[in-house]
Design goal:
six-stranded antiparallel β-sheet; alpha/beta; globular
Length: about 425
Amino acid sequence: MLFRSIWEWGDINRNGNFKFKDATASRGQINYDQQWLDVPDNLNVVANVCPFKEGAELNSQSEYDMYSNFVYSAVERYDGDGDLGCSLESPDCYSEGDNEYPDSETVAKYERNPIKFWQVCNQLINVCSNDCKNTYSSKYALVQKYTYNEVKAADSSAYVLIGGDTGKELYPEVFSELNGNYIDIIDYHRFGKEEDYNPKEDLDYIKSSLQDSGFDLNNLKFWITETGTYSGDPIIPRMGEDLPYQSEKQHASGLFKSYISAISYGVEKVFWAWNIVEGFTKECSIFDYTGIVYDGCDCDAGGNYVCENNIGYDLGFGTKKLAYYTYKLMVEKLEGSDWDNIEVVRESNGIYVYKFNNQDKSIWVAWNDDSASQTISLSELGITGSAKITNAIPDADSGSEVSSYSTAFNTYTTSSDIVLGESPVFVEEN
C-alpha cells in the first residue's frame, strides 16, 4: 500500500515546523498519523517521499537541508524504534505549540508494523518543472542521494526505492549520476494493451543501464508498483498511441500474464493500478478502466465523466469483472510458491510455460499468444500420468454472468496433450 509524503505539504512555510497531523495538501488537509493508522497490520506501507508534488524545484542548499530534515523526521516518526524524532516533550514535537507529538495509539501501531519502504517521488521528473527534460537527471539524482542518506541515518534497515516511470529511457542518465549507489529497489511502471504485458525486454534494458553505471544487480530488488491494462475503450491516447476497445476477457488475460511474466523474470512485487474499483481520474483515460470492479458510472447528471465510446459500458457499481475472478484464482493457486525458484519451461513459438513449486506440489502456468490453438504435451512438463487443467479466465463474456466463483472456471482432467486456446491455464499433476 502506497502513501505520499510531500515536503511542501508537511512544511508549507519551509521553516522546519513539520506537520504530520495537519499537512496542507492540494486536495485538503491530511493527518498522516491517522491515515497510516488505518492500514491493517498485515499490509506494508510504501511511503512516497518527495520535495514537491510536481512542477517545482529545490533552489538552494538551505532548502535541501530542510527537505533532508523532513525526511529524517518522517522516517523516525514511523520506523517503530522508540525514537519519534521529536525535539520537544509531548504534546509538542518540532516547535512550541505545534501539538505534533504522536499519540500512544500511533506509537503502538508503528512498533507493531513500522514503515520500512521509502520511495523517492512517484516519477523521475517530479522533482523539477515541466520543462526540465534536459536537466531532470542531475536534479532527481541529488534528491535521491539526500533522501537515501536521511532514510538510512534514521533507520538503517529500511529500503529506499527509486521513483518509477513508464519511459525506460529516462533511467540511464539518473543511474549514471548515482554511480552505483543510493538505491535498494528499482521501480518501473508499465501500462498498455493486453499484448503489452511482458516487461522482460524493458527490464533487460534497465538492468544493462544499471550495470553500465556501476550497480551490482545482486544487491538490488526489482518492483513494478504501477501496472495495468483495461477493459472498455479509453478515449485519451496513451504515450501517443490510441487504445482500442478491449473485452473483459482481454483485460483478465492481460492482468494474468502481466503478473506471471514479471514474477517469472524475478520481479519481487507487482502492484495493479489504479484501484480495485475503476474510475481513478474520471477523464476516460486508461487509468479509469484498469480496475477489476465497475464503479457504476458512465456518468453525468452531476456525476460527469461521460465517455462517448463507453456509453452503456458500465455494468453497475460493485459488479466484478472477469479479471476479479482471475486474480482471485491466481492468488489461491500460487500462494505459498517458492518465488525465487520459478522454472521457465518454455518461451517460444507463442507458447509460454512456467513451473511454480508450491509447497509439496508443482503447478504449471501456460498460455498461447497465437490466434490459432496450439498444444503442449504432459511429457514436456515432466508429468507422467494425468493432469488437472483449469482455465484461468471464467467461462463467460462478463463477470456479471458469473453466478458462483466455485463453478466459474472450466476444469477437466487429461492424460494426453493440452490444447492451449484463448484462456491461460493452470496445470496440476494428479
